[in-house]
Amino acid sequence: ITGSGSSAVSVLTNNGAGSQEFSLTNSIIQANNGPGIQVRNGTTNPTTTAHAQEIFIRGNQITANTGSGVDIELNARGAQEITVNANQITNNGGDGIRSVARLSGLQEFPILPDGSVGITNNTITGNGEQAIDVEVNDNATIAVLNIRNNTLQNNGGGTDIDIRATAITTRACTVILSN
User: What global pTM score does this model have?
Assistant: First the structure.
């Protein structure tokens, strides 16, 4: 997917939607005017709009997009289970992988029965901001955030892995191993 006027792939669940499972595998996503892959669950107003999402992003080349390579937001009282595995995420204008959980949402980047782990075995290089940028706001929870066996090099924006909890009511359990 090349040259889109906004994000190349947009996955959205909102008010009135049911649960959603999305898988993107072995694709080339490049030179789009926005994030390569954009995942949105719910809105911040009203706060009851989010639902359940399972997201699998595996084996893709995500490169030279003007926004982040992968941009994930949970904006309300929903849940997301996310796997970003074995991708080449390079030379994007924003973060390699950006994830934000707001309000009372629940995000997980777990170990799955097939052995894949949250954010694992990716090459994340040359992006304009952090390689991996995760923010937890309000009453949101990240039950488990596994970041393992990634190659992180030459990304801008300071640290390669940035995990932020912005309120006393947020909760995040993070495992970072062998990057």
Answer: 0.93
